[in-house]
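so im writing up the methods section and need the Metallophosphoesterase record in one place, dumping it here so i stop losing it
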Amino acid sequence: MIPERIRLRILHTNDIHSHFEQLPRIASIIASLRQEAGAEHTLSLDIGDHIDRMRPETEGTGGLANIALLNAIGYDAVTLGNNEGLTCTPEVLNELYGKHARSKVVIANLRDAETGSLPLWASPYAIFNKSGIQIGVIGVTARFTDFYRLLGWNVSDPFEAVASLAAELRPKVDVLIVMSHLGLSNDERMAAEIPGIDLILGGHTHHLLEEPIRSGRTLICAAGKFGQYVGVVDLELDAVSKRLLHAEGGVKAAAESEEEESIRLQIQQYAVKAKASLDREVARIDCDLDVDWYGESRLGNLLAAGLRDWVGAEIGLVNAGQLLGGLPQGPVSAGMLLELCPSPINPCRMKLSGAQLLTALEESLLPEFMNKPLYGFGFRGKVLGTLCVDGITIEYDPEAAPYSRILSVRVGTEALELERLYTVGTIDMFTFRIGYLSIAEGLEPEFFMPEFLRDVLLKELHNARAMKDSSRKRWVRMNGQAAPH
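--- predicted struct ---
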């Protein structure tokens, strides 16, 4: 005789990154699948990076739009990704998750650096009872230790946290789930090293698993990025022993679903509120500020100068691709700054040798670097772009052979010394070894948080000296040869 079985359905999303246009379809899918299985048999989870401050609906509402929609769709639990943890201050997180979120917030490895306690709005795990089945859920996020420390958090080893909690929870629950904003390779490691986990729902590396990865007893699942898919896992358990008998998973494409009208209308309402906030005037300028991804521009110069001043460095250095547009003469709104500089990237100070600087400057004259497409690590632009600089003057010959185009470099009034270390104001993105790799070799990186590049730019728009100086040429085109320095 076949034993009676209890069926459970786990619905999951990850790395939506404020793609609000997908949420009406996601809501429709979740509502339909929940109704099909029965609410008492269904658990809905989000694995982090729902928030992305590049989107006006998020930036203009301080993230409230995201939380309201998580509530409206009816998630049982969420964890935090690095976009929540690193682009929102603790005060903002307290407001969003402490006052407005109705989902349980489950995160085991993020604690207040002073007290060592979890925030009041979070728990290391949660236990849900669905049709008499006890489901344990653990949440962990990626360990960006240095960045979290600057915001007042201590982010601990997620493997140690999961191993300890799995050992504690396994005797108490029938199903054990890890919400892992760690990336696929870490999920595979976790499945191999930590016993007792039935299901790992992943995110962070935007991997799409149309079929789960099976590692021993553990199923590893993920639903890609930007709300393009909803993950679905169906479990069957013995009704008497509560033993897990069968598990299968997959994804459902959002594009195949109709929109949930109430969610679409709610998004429209938040978009109106966000626009009203972002339309406020934050500066007024008396000239046009152009941008050029492939050459020198006033706005690029201004941003490089702002980074140099912000961190107190000898040299300012930033890729032109951070700027997606220019600014016309007249009033500047918060929304205009968001549109032209959407990346949640922070200032950084480091030490670079003259030789490393020279390599980066040579690379910035090459099409393969200027045209390099990038995504991730905070970057929300399209291509890397050339280097915008401040504090240095470069003479170059664009017709010379690659890596021989720089004819001279002066730091202030002195010739660049290849062996000397210079303090450079730049961006945290380069420390992740993308873009100009010689910059990633810098020593003693220091990060400045929570401000973004658009905050640096706003400060410079109010600096009359910097505005005037932005028209001064840093890159001087020459013909003929000169001895390189």
